[in-house]
Here is the input.
Amino acid sequence: MNIKSSWLKSGFVNEEVPTGIDIKKEIVRLKEEKDAIIMAHFYQTNEIQDIADFVGDSLALAQKAAKTDSKIIVLAGVHFMGETAKILSPEKTVLVPDLNAGCSLADSCPPDEFKSFVDKHPDYTVLTYVNTTAKIKALSDIVVTSTNAKNIVDSLPKNEKIIFGPDRNLGNYLNSISGREMVLWDGACHVHEKFSVEKIVELKEQHPEALVLAHPECKKPLLLLADFVGSTAALLNYSIKSDAKKFIVATESGIIHQMQMESNDKVFIPAPPNDSTCACNDCEYMKLNSLEKLYNALKYEWPSIEVDETIRLDAVKPINRMLDISHKAGL
Ligand code: 13P
Ligand code: SF4
Here is the structure.
């Protein structure tokens, strides 16, 4: 059985690679031979971030996917990120090294239930976080990421009635900083909801000089104690510009790789989750991708993301609205 049919049979991407090869060199060779670009999210493993041509947050990955000239986009991230790239660049082959890399937040918003929610609010503008399936985007008026959400909410008239989904924590946070009363879908990310406020308070006692950086997908009590709240890119920029030398980082620990590379004189402490003895909190979906799977994805040009064209045509509009508003806001 060849490797591709064994993947198809098992439903999983086989991690097997030929013995004796230098996998990093082979990835670079295949990438050049096939005119591919490797794009990675900040939550990927250090070695994937290091081999990528481009590393960024959800917004930067979408912006890059919309304008790249490469024939193949390898999106080392989760499924919705690959889907967004495919929606924006349907003529390109978009590969995600492990198609099982899903997202608990996207899963917390089933399309049929979300459609009923939208139908119950007929005169509302539908804002959705990018962490959703293409079907949810197709039901939306504007997509947002955590980098541009505040700008996009602020761009709407003050009296506009808005539905926001699927992340209740980001939605509550946006309501609090924008003075809106958006009606929220009750979804969440299991990684960000798991951070322990108690353990972070203990860490603060041990490191009183440390600043707490938190992603807006975290629960409200954590956001209230944070010194800075922002998207992965915003947290990274803050850590670079800040005079502080120590940070407690309440988001997926992959971001610490870039923080440490940018500021090797600073200390970054991953915020711990509440349910284990492990010091950091990883997204098991993001961490499904590996160098071996990336190599095989490039070699076999598989597994690729496919989006139904009718859904894509509806989904591309709210993503393009997001990109337009972001561009105007200089993001
Ligand atoms: P960012 O857009 O801030 O990178 O967030 C992506 C994500 O999945 C957060 O959990
Ligand atoms: Fe989804 Fe949470 Fe993983 Fe981000 S960290 S990809 S929101 S499950």
